[in-house]
Amino acid sequence: MTALAEPRLTAPARIEPRPFGLARHSLALARRSVLKTLRTPEQLLDVTIQPVIFVVVFVYLLGGAIAGDTGKYLQFLVPAIMVQTVMFGGMATGVNLNTDIGKGVFDRFRSLPIGRSAPLIGSVAGDLIRYVVAIVSLLVFASLMGFRFQTGVGSVLAACVLTTFFAFCLSWVVVLIGMVMRTPGAVQGTAFVIMFPLTFGTSMIAPKDTLPGWLQSWVGVNPVAHMMEASRALMLGGPLGDHVVWVLVWSVGILAVFAPLAVRAYRRRT
Amino acid sequence: MPWAFQAEGLVKRYGKTTALAGIELAAEQGSVLGVLGPNGAGKTTAVRILATLLRPDAGRATVGGFDVVRDAAKVRRLIGLTGQYASVDEDLTGTQNLVLIGQLLDLRTPDAKARAVELLAGFGLSEAAGKQVKTYSGGMRRRLDLAASLVGRPEVIYLDEPTTGLDPAKREDVWSMVRSLADDGVTVLLTTQYLEEADALADTISVIDHGKVIANGTPGELKRVVGGQTVLIRPADPADLVTASAIAGAVADRQVESPARGVLTVPVDGDAAFTEIVRRLAQERIAVTELSLRLPSLDEVFFTLTGHHTQQEAA
């Protein structure tokens, strides 16, 4: 082999820093994350097949009992389970980061002159593609089963965007878990323990007024429950109430607390 | 000459284990520093501190005059790092890996792409540029890894055991790359377990053991301390052993030994003695099946310097 045939290929030279480093670097790393996802489509199984299975199981097993009719139950379930699907999709961000961080490539990122938060922001932002895939595959499948939107395109899009924003903010909790736990399995386990009361402690499966009092209180404060009700109102019509406000307040609050904690945990991890 | 990097009294502890016990390392601009030591001697820890990946518990280190803890961001603009394990993304292609690093180093995307093309060509990876790294052979990965650490034209590059696990031909490739780096004026820190490698590449060698430098000097100085080279001769015809022994003894002016049947070894002080032995063997028409000039192994170096073997170190 003619190593370094061209002379001065490696001659030292300084590269001048350019402005907006954090945004540019995060974007470049988000692109990496998207490329990786597209190269390994099997990583999308949890956001394509899993929601379909959930819908089939709930609608045909429980639909008749809860709503008296599977068609009616499908209308009730889909806007809410979309939220759960996207949240579960966000769990993979923490697991993937935990796997990724143990590899040499993260050592390389750490040795580069980039913001410490850039690799985390890049991963979380890059995983937005998973949310889009999740929403599209769920809504397409639900439509085939007979689900029908009762509102306009604008409202439906608003439901999807709000869900995505909410899941994006919430995924920083899982990213923090991914930074603190030692193995990907532990990340998954811990994330499930947190996600289950959040997603099932809601009116997703059954109307709120059928739940016991203590559970109704939890549903009243659970941000995921507000998100699901907002999604229902936006897709099926009906009173939107203050659900959207609660969702936005919770989202920004979660982001403001957990994103800095996750970055701090990442910096401490060596 | 100013120091390209300098470490003074670096200490790093992990719980009860002391990885570095006050290590001193330094290299002049454009030189190659070989850091020689067995597994667990603290080589990687020292590299990680100099690469701003770890904070030392005590001591200080500077690269290009910048402190690795206080001015870490500035240090990161000067360095390139190639770890023992390839630090490239397996799911991406060779080009995608290098372009990403270029972008992270603040190159404009067209410049990052041009730099990727030129480095891939320089490292003989043009054909594999569009393939995912997981399809690369071990040698190709190592080359891509090295290319990745050179995207930003670093002033200092750390090569942590760059030839571990490579076969001899691939090792030669890496060696020639290290030499070109030095020719281009890059300062290289190379860690290795082989004296032969340090001897072939380094301007200065620091031998480390238990997180401390136990010997330091040019390869020549070090070899004088640890006993230099040994010539090994295996005559094709055992009947020639006596003549061969006489030649070797006369040229080297040392005691010739026979560590195994049909094999002669004699310590020599310089390369010239080897040439002379070869010449005289040819003159006497003595055919040989093996004739080599070898350096002491790391184990022998350690035995000379510390009085114990490296295997006991690990235990």
UniProtKB/TrEMBL annotation, chain A:
GO MF terms, alphabetically ordered: ABC-type transporter activity
UniProt keyword Transmembrane helix present: yes
Ranges that cross the membrane: 44-67, 73-97, 118-144, 156-179, 186-206, 244-263
Topology in the lipid bilayer: Multi-pass membrane protein
Pfam families linked: ABC2_membrane (PF01061)
Residues annotated as domain ABC transmembrane type-2: 42-269
Any single GO BP term: response to antibiotic
InterPro entries for this protein: ABC2_TM, ABC2_TM_bact-type, ABC_2_transport, Nod_factor_ABC_transporter
Annotated localization: Cell membrane; Membrane
Family membership noted in the UniProt record: Belongs to the ABC-2 integral membrane protein family.
PANTHER family for the chain: NODULATION PROTEIN J
Name of this protein: Transport permease protein
Organismal lineage: Bacteria, Bacillati, Actinomycetota, Actinomycetes, Pseudonocardiales
Automatic annotation (TrEMBL), chain B:
Membrane topology recorded in Swiss-Prot or TrEMBL: Peripheral membrane protein
GO CC annotation, single: plasma membrane
InterPro entries reported for this sequence: AAA+_ATPase, ABC_transporter-like_ATP-bd, ABC_transporter-like_CS, ABC_transporter_ATP-binding, DrrA, DrrA1/2-like_C, P-loop_NTPase
Subcellular localization(s) per the UniProt record: Cell membrane
One Pfam family from the record: DrrA1-3_C
Record-annotated ABC transporter domain positions: 5-235
GO molecular function: ATP binding; ATP hydrolysis activity
Keyword Nucleotide-binding tagged: yes
Alphabetic keyword roster: Antibiotic resistance, ATP-binding, Cell membrane, Membrane, Nucleotide-binding, Translocase, Transport
Highest rank taxon of the organism: Bacteria
GO biological process assignments: daunorubicin transport; doxorubicin transport; response to antibiotic
Keyword NADP recorded: no
PANTHER family registered for this protein in UniProt: ABC TRANSPORTER ATP-BINDING PROTEIN, DOXORUBICIN RESISTANCE ATP-BINDING PROTEIN DRRA
NCBIfam families assigned to the protein according to its UniProt record, in alphabetical order: drrA
Family to which the UniProt record says this protein belongs: Belongs to the ABC transporter superfamily. Drug exporter-1 (DrugE1) (TC 3.A.1.105) family.
Protein name in the entry: Oleandomycin transport system ATP-binding protein
Origin species: Umezawaea tangerina
Lineage of the species this protein comes from: Bacteria, Bacillati, Actinomycetota, Actinomycetes, Pseudonocardiales
